[in-house]
Amino acid sequence: MPKTLNRETVRAAKADIEIFARDLVGAPLFDYQLDAARNPSDITVLNAGRQVGKSTLMAMCALHRAFAQPGSMVLILSAGESAAKTMLSRVAELMRGTILEASTVEDLKDRIVLTTGSTIRCLPASERAVRGESVDLLILDEAAKQPADMWSAAAWTTVARPGSRVIMASTPWSQNHWFHRAYIAGQAKRDGYYSYHWPSTTSPLMNTERLEQLRATMTTHQYNAEVLAEWSEDVGAYFSTAELDACVADYTLTPPDKAYGQLAVAGLDWGRVHDAQAVTLLAALDDDELNKATHPEETIYYIPWLENHFNMRYSDFQQRILDIAKGYELRHIVSELNGPGNPATEQLSDLLRRNRHVTKGQSWIAGVNTTNRGKQNAFGMLKLLVQQGRIVLPREPDLLSQLHSLTYERTDSGQMRIAVPDIAGHDDAAMSLAQCMSTIGNNTLYREDNPRPRKDTILTTPGGTRIHQTPRALNNWYAFGRARVHDRYNKW
Ligand SMILES: Nc1ncnc2c1ncn2[C@@H]1O[C@H](COP(=O)(O)OP(=O)(O)OP(=O)(O)O)[C@@H](O)[C@H]1O
Ligand SMILES: [Mg+2]
Question: What protein residues have CB closer than 5 angstroms to ion ligand 2?
């Protein structure tokens, strides 16, 4: 709350945003915010992580300019209509209960006009918003998400105003965007630009523990951008080699005839011209509490068996699946429906039904149309398991190299597209594993009360997850949810 507001304080507040924020508005800025607010360059670029205090700083700068320099025009452009509204209410919020509130002459939908004759306008970024405008302080919030031609249009608004200033802030997004170019210019202190880099942890309010938890739910790409405020390549490897290696152990796969009814789910990828037919099994690991310290309540998964067949007829591949179902209890079979997958899945379903007296239990067959979003969710889940050390992968070069060749790129709509580039080869093994991911629920692990420790060599992945040389599946249906892919269920 404001201290005694004598003329001296008001004069000091006009001259210095620190005093203004602290004594007049009653919301002091942090040192790093002050540093940027006082920067004398024409164009200040804030490349910053989420929640570091960008918008707060910009609202304060807007208010200070409007207060300190009578008759000035401040324009704040946000990425989108609702962001613009929020920005206006932030400014209004800062004014509430201060002498500034009394000096408001107009509080319209998109602007606040003060008795100083200054106006603060908050608009969604568009070329129309800046056409013909002339402003003293131009603020661009979430700049990297604003239209591609926004900066070239907006820059004109300040050229004819002596002493005018631009502040643009954003978390990183595409490198092919003017915000990235502005940041680079500011790093070199070129052409009146000056850049700051603030990871989220710059803010003293950041809860690092909470941040670590969040990290587990994000891809590396997201974390780099949203927390570290670092640009990573827009096209890159979806899994790093190190990340995958951390999950590998030299355990023994269990062939179906040695499975004796262990529970698993299967993902199928029906080959087209160049691909193999692939089936990958995923099971919950019965680890005899080996990982209880690191994963007290979460299920750990592993791949008990996988097969790839080149140039195999569909009918022979269906027969293979039946053989597997005679050894493993396949809770779900998630099968790709694209291309030849549709009739092939139907036939498989028939074959299993006719042979249900010889299979271990009955399978739910879930047909899935592979879409970009489905892939993103499936590989996203796999990524999560990988990063949490909750999946152990066998040292199968095909699978590992396919996973490693998966690339992502950002589409124009901001989505991610995951694919194996043609030159890198096949993706059948990776895809069949991804199909299994849709069956993973978020049930907590049910452990047996009296585990019977086994006499078997214990292996440890480089990431620290422990697994027996000959792993056994946890025969617990709750390790798997319902395949989230079937038309009748909520689709992925
Ligand atoms: N100087 C400050 N003093 C106290 N709290 C602050 C300060 N600056 C920011 N905050 C608080 O930190 C939080 C994040 O601030 P803000 O919304 O400005 O960050 P942001 O970087 O714009 O976030 P986002 O990335 O979500 O847009 C808010 O709760 C805000 O009130
Ligand atoms: Mg913000």
Answer: 54-55
Identify which of 18, 55, 61, 85 to mutate to test ligand 1's pocket (most ligand atoms within 8 A of the CB).
55
**Do the Cβ atoms of 246 and 461 come closer than 8 Å?**
yes
DSSP notation for 166-228: EEEEE----SSSHHHHHHHHHHTT-TTEEEEEE-GGGSTT--HHHHHHHHHTS-HHHHHHHTS
Instruction: Tell me which CATH code domain 237-479 carries.
Output: 3.30.420.240
Taking CA atoms only, the protein residue closest to ligand 1 atom 3 is: 29
With a 6 A CB cut-off, is 205 part of the ligand 1 pocket? Answer: yes
CA–centroid distance, residue 283 to ligand 1 (Å): 44
Q: Which atom of ligand 1 is nearest to the CA of 59?
A: 18
Q: What is the pLDDT of residues 435-481, one digit of tens each?
A: 999 888 766 676 666 667 788 999 999 999 999 999 999 988 888 87
Cβ(56) – ligand 1 distance below 6 Å: yes
The pLDDT tens digits of the residues spanning 400-418 come to: 878 887 887 766 666 778 8
Helix, strand or coil, per DSSP, at residue 34 = helix
Which H or E run includes 44?
strand 43-48
Q: Where are the domains of the chain?
A: 7-206, 237-479
Q: Confirm or reject: Cβ of 432 under 6 Å from ligand 1.
A: no
Strands 236-237 and 301-302: unpaired
Tens-digit pLDDT profile for residues 319-368: 999 999 999 999 999 998 888 888 999 999 999 999 999 999 888 898 88
What is residue 473's predicted lDDT score, i.e. its pLDDT?
94
Average pLDDT for residues 33-41, to the nearest whole number?
97
Fold for 7-206, please state it.
Answer: Rossmann fold (3.40.50)
